[in-house]
Amino acid sequence: MSKFNEMTRWSNLARLAGGRTAKLTIAAPFAAFIILHNEPLQPFLEMSENWHPNPILESLALARFDIFYLGLVVIGIAVALFSLFSPLQITSHEGYNGFISLKERTKTNNAIEGSLRLTLEEYSRCSRGTDLSVDTSERRFRFPKRFREGLWSLLVGLSRATKKQGNGVEGHYSPKEILAGLTAEGPNRADWWETVHELLPDFSIDIFRLEFVHADYASPIMRAIVFWVLILGILIVFLPTVITTYLVLSDLVQLVKPPGSAGGA
Question: Transmembrane region positions (predicted)?
Answer without folding.
Answer: 21-38, 67-85, 225-249
